[in-house]
Structures are given as C-alpha cells and as structure tokens.
Design brief:
34% of the residues lie in helices and 16% in strands. By secondary structure, the protein is of the alpha+beta class.
C-alpha cells in the first residue's frame, strides 16, 4: 500500500512492510480512519454523526482490521488471560496481561498473546493514536470511543450487551473482534492453548462480561487447532461447560484454580512471569505431557450435574471440593457408576416410612457406600433393607445404572 503521509505519530516498532505487505498495517488503519469522512460524500467533514453513521463507520473499520495480519509462527503457544494477581512497587496491581506480555518476551516465538499481533498493537501500544484518530469521527466523546474500542463506557464498565460496541446490530467492540479472530481462526499453532486466570472469579468485577467469557471461550471450543487447554483435553472442559446448571462457572473456576496453582504465593510481576513461562514450556505444569490434574463431574442422587471436583497430584486436598450431595463422579467421560461410590457430605437418605412408602430424609446416620457389580446391588450401612429393595426394583431408576 502506498505511503501518503508522515509516520511521526506512530512508533516505528508498530510499522512493518508499509509498502510491500499484502496486509493492512497499523498506519493503514489510522490513515483509513483519518480519511473516512472525506471518502464519504454524503457525510459532513466536521459535523456530528448520527448513530447510524457511526455504525456504518464501525462496520467499515472492522472490514479494514480484518485485512490485518493475524498469522503467528507455526507451533506457537497462544496465551489467553484475565484478571489481576499481586501488587507492583508503585502500588498498582499486576495485571494478567502484563504477565502474558512478559512470557511472550521471555519465550520469543514459542508463545504469543493478542498484543503481539498488529491488530493487538492497535488497541494496545498504539491505543493513544487510535483514540486520537477516532476523535475525528466521534469527537472527544469518551463513552463513544471506549464503546468502539473496548465495549465499555467512559468508566470502563462493559455495556449491558457485553462484547458489542453499542452501535448497529450487535457490532462487536474492537477488543472482541480481534480476540475472536485470534482464538477462533488461528491455525497451525500449538494444540495446547494456555488460559491464565490467576485471580478468583468471584473477586473479578463483572467477570461474566469480560472478553474471555463473552467472546473467546466460545471461539476456542469451535477452533479445532486447540486440542487441550492448560494440558486438559478440550472435550472434557467443553462437556462441563455445556452443562446447563452452572457448567460455565465450573470451567472458569477450574482455569482460575490452575492459574493460582502455577503462581502460588508469588506476587511480583517478574516472579509470576518466570513461573508461567516454566509452566507453559515443554513438560511444564500446564502441558499435556505433565498434566497433574484430575477433573470429576459430580452428580447428585437424581443424577443431576451439581458441579466439579478438581484435584492436583501436587496437593493433598482438592483444589475444588466435590459439592455437598455428590453421589456419583464422572472423570474424563468415564462413568464411575460401577465403582465404589461414597456420599462425601450426605444430605439425603432413603427410608421406608410406617406405611411402607419410600421417602427421603436428611442426615443419614453415617456415609453410605453403594456397590454395583454386574447389576447386583449390595448395601453397607445407612439405608434400611426396605429402601434397598425399592432401589433394586427400579423405584429410583437413575440412582445406580
């Protein structure tokens, strides 16, 4: 593309192959924004734009950004992230993106994150120049500028329709557009995607509106290039995610617990960078070759999914405890129906009342182990003989299969 203006406003590191690249560069995008009003004969060069005109601009801008280079070197590990963990010397929190940035620099072509892409630089390192260019379109309206770039208002709160820019028919914010392309369209990258969430989900303000849960995870599940996430088979996490009763939250908690186990009590930026770099490198904690995690889907007495249990070989206690009322676990798709099963923290028991009716009661006298071998039910402690007979007859069909 032909260079038509001075480059003094843009850092040299963001400008590559200005005249020879088949892709749009950062400068090309800024030039496009600067010239958009002039190119539109039906739009005033200085007047205020209507919402419909802004929506048309955003749609045109998306088209130009999609022409940028989103390719990464073959086999590169993609790093996703969310949250904060630790405090820097200046009193500001250590952001997960800063740790991802440090890992990317430390490992070179072995790992990358969104801001390494030209489009990522546009909304990251070059955001100041992007904002200046957008002021030519919408004026100094911080709400509009933040909406277009990040899908937030001027106070950095994501919009109610999270992931969108608030203009047009659900047009995505640039953060979401670029993240979607990286996570959804990357090919020939490492099959093990890293998602680093070192902060507890419940501690993150409106986590459910952030880019990862709104945009990225859905694209990750659709992208066949990724076979594992933090060393865990993607199908396992997708199976949990698809559970209608809290499955999504369970997956977020799993990824968050993994991130916290990697960095432990380390709170400095450099220390966490070194630990994450080690974890994602060959035979690291978050790789399939050395994955120490066991994830169990947990079911109650009615065979309803009620949560997960996460265990690590490095920890004696589970990272996520099985929910109260767990009667059956399913690990990596292998049902444990025909194994010994334990009421870890039982709340319900079955008994026959005086009239011979099967009923539920709370707090059984002791944990009850049920063993199903070759279809034969055997009972030790906890249930009355009558209740066991009712179960054997199929009164509760999903209790033991």
């Amino acid at each position: 593309m032909e260079v038509t203006k001075e480059l003094s406003q843009v850092n040299a590191e963001s400008i590559e192959q200005l005249t020879t690249s088949k892709y749009n560069t950062v400068k090309d995008i800024l030039d496009f924004i600067d010239g958009w009003r002039t190119d539109k004969k039906d739009i005033s060069p200085t007047g205020k734009l209507s919402d419909e005109q802004i929506a048309q601009f955003v749609k045109d801008l998306h088209g130009e950004i999609e022409k940028m280079d989103f390719t990464v070197p073959k086999g590169t590990i993609i790093l996703g992230y969310s949250g904060i963990h630790g405090i820097k010397a200046d009193g500001k929190p250590v952001c997960a993106w800063e740790i991802a940035d440090g890992v990317s620099k430390k490992l070179g072509d072995e790992a990358t994150y969104i801001s390494d892409l030209p489009a990522g630089m546009l909304i990251g390192k070059e955001r100041k120049h992007l904002v200046e260019a957008l002021e030519n379109i919408v004026g100094d309206n911080e709400d509009y500028i933040n909406q277009i770039i990040s899908g937030t208002d001027a106070d950095w709160n994501r919009l109610e329709n999270a992931g969108t820019c608030g203009f047009g028919d659900n047009l995505p914010a640039l953060d979401d557009l670029i993240s979607s392309k990286l996570m959804g369209e990357s090919k020939n990258v490492s099959s093990n995607l890293i998602v680093f969430i070192p902060q507890a989900i419940e501690e993150q303000n409106n986590f459910h509106k952030k880019v990862f849960p709104v945009t990225e995870i859905g694209q990750i599940f659709k992208n066949d290039a990724f076979q594992t996430i933090n060393g865990i088979p993607k199908e396992q996490l997708q199976s949990i995610y698809s559970e209608p009763n809290g499955g999504k939250e369970c997956v977020y908690d799993i990824l968050s617990q993994m991130g916290r186990e990697v960095v432990g009590n380390e709170m400095t930026l450099q220390g966490q960078t070194d630990l994450l770099a080690e974890a994602v490198s060959e035979n690291g904690l978050l790789t399939p070759e050395r994955s120490n995690y066991t994830i169990n889907k947990c079911y109650d007495i009615y065979n309803n999914f009620i949560g997960v249990e996460l265990r690590s070989k490095n920890q004696e206690q589970p990272l996520i405890k099985a929910p109260e009322g767990t009667i059956r676990r399913e690990s990596y798709g292998q049902s444990q129906d025909n194994m010994n099963m334990l009421f870890d923290t039982p709340k319900l028991s079955l008994y026959i009342d005086a009239s011979g009716v099967l009923r539920e009661g709370i707090e059984p006298p002791k944990p009850t182990i049920i063993r199903s071998l070759n279809g034969e039910l055997k009972m030790t402690d906890g249930f009355t003989k009558g209740a066991a007979e009712q179960i054997s007859k199929g009164a509760i069909k999903d209790f033991v299969r």
